[in-house]
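Assemble and predict.
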Amino acid sequence: MKPFFSHSRGWMLVVLTCFATGCVTTTVQEIRQASTGISHSESVVVLGRHNNAADESEDDFVSCVSSSLSGGKNGVGVVTEASFVDAMFPWFEPRTAPLNTSDLPEIVNQPILADKLNSIGVRYVIWIEGNTHRTAQGGAMTCSVSVAGAGCFGFLSWENDSSYEASIWDIKNGTSVGKVSSDANGTSFMPAVIVPIPFIARVQSGACSSMASQLKTFITKES
Amino acid sequence: MRRYVVALLVALTLGGCTGANVQMEGDIPTPLVNRLPLRVGLYLEPALVQYVFEEKIQDHGDWRVEVGPMQAKLFRQVASAMFLEAVPVDSVAAPGANLDAVLAPSIVEFQISIPSQTRSEFYEVWIKYLMRLYDTQGTLIAEWPLTAYGKANRGDYGFMESSDSPAIRQATMIALRDAGAFLALRFTTIPEVRAWLNSHSAPPPQGGQT
């Protein structure tokens, strides 16, 4: 009897957690092409790809990955996207940024650019592509305002899907060292009886923390 | 309290028709390029420095972008990094100024599009400049178009209509940087400019501007 009780209590906890925050399922995958490692004097920069509108990442996702990489127990040195792009102007603008590692020698072989990269201390450039979009929605809600008061009645639900891929370039060696992808999905809902109460599935945030955690391991683990 | 709720709803409803009034702000970074050994005059015509874009978009209000002063800042910053010296001049002809040439940008076109027009997620800005390089007597050496593009994702600016101004400002800033990038990186690849540089005993560095 006791195991059944514990089992059902566990499920209840899951259901309550989902109800309070929305359920998010996250999958992270990694492809390693070369060994990595980073010294204390080196740093990374996380950049959003802006050349392809369909796969352009949200600014807040790029900032989230960037700040998550620098924080926590094994945080790595991170240069912000804005300061890196400004320092390297005009080589990392949306239409001038290198698309492949084969474009890197043009940059790293120029003394003026190599000196700047050395002074910034950036070892890895992490390119982020992908975004979060709504895949389904349903329900209805009606709100009205009258002299007697205001209120809403109904139920809304929607499902968001995040799909991001990070390509990691070793700028010192001019090579691609691997890729990390993070996919997440979750359903949010908002019941309303007079006052709407949203239960938001933090899908993008889940994808961010999973990707940042994996990137941190990927870069710091010398293999 | 009820009055505030009604006022908020009215403001939100009318807010969809307000458009944007944008004053550009911010800095243009110094381009990382090798300087050409040239003393160049920079002529910024009043039409460029005072340029204001204005358009009424049906059902989406009046859109106004004061881009002139930022264009002046852009060309001064980029020219000062591209050349040994870049000095402001009052005319395309500067015979007694000890210069090698005069660079004169002019704006041809400025266009914007907003997400509700294109059914996309982006505010977009296109700018077309006509770049001219003169010798110090005012004779045209080279003339070439410089096109620039910038976009800003609606999702990065929240869902309120008040996001129009910051999004258009950001798209314009990216377009201005794009113009600066292509001017700095492609200047020596313009055939007439390259030919003039070769004849002027100031050959462009190997591998282009950098």
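The radius of gyration of chain A is 22 Å.
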